[in-house]
Amino acid sequence: MNLLVVASLLGRGKQLERLSDGLTLLALAYGFAPLLNATLHPLATLLCCVLLALGVLHKYWAIRVAIDAELFARLANSSDLAADTQALDRALFELKLKPQAADTRAWPARSQAALGLLRRQAVCLGLQLSLALATLLTLLLKG
After folding, report:
1. What's the total number of domains in the chain?
2. What is the pLDDT of residue 25?
3. What is d(CA 53, CA 90) in angstroms, rounded to the nearest whole number?
4. How far is CA 97 from the centre of its chain?
5. Is the pTM of this model over 0.90?
6. How far apart are the C-alpha atoms of 57 and 55, rounded to whole Å?
7. How far is CA 88 from CA 93, 104, 110, 111, in A?
8. Whole-angstrom Cα distance, residue 11 to residue 117?
9. Whose CA is closest to 22, among 50, 51, 64?
10. Could you write out the DSSP letters of every residue in 91-131?
11. Over the stretch 36-66, which tens digit does the pLDDT of each residue have?
12. Could you tell me the residue range of the domain that residue 50 belongs to?
């Protein structure tokens, strides 16, 4: 049941990703404002560039969280968790996604590591939201 709970929590990363994608697209749209003969505020432009970089970083964490969510969901329904764990570790090693074929961590430690990725994703989104608000304030105070 713990694996299923972790999979469900990791699944919430998709909601974070959608919000991040929206913020990233808004920052990108701001960069295209000169095409509409709009002038860009230098500080807002800088903030949008950082916002775009955070969007790319967020996407990286979102992909990692989504992969873990699917793997945890699959393993939560495993009839032989030990064998499936070994098969997973071997597959990740063969795909060069893991440095060693054997992983001695128990599932509680693996769960905490996966939830750590979700926390990183959430922090990245928090930074994006803060920068988006700072950019908005910059633009409002400009006028």
Report:
1. 1
2. 94
3. 33
4. 17
5. no
6. 5
7. 9, 13, 12, 15
8. 12
9. 51
10. HHHHTTSSS-S-----HHHHHHHHHHHHHHHHHHHHHHHHH
11. 887 888 888 899 999 999 999 999 999 999 9
12. 2-142
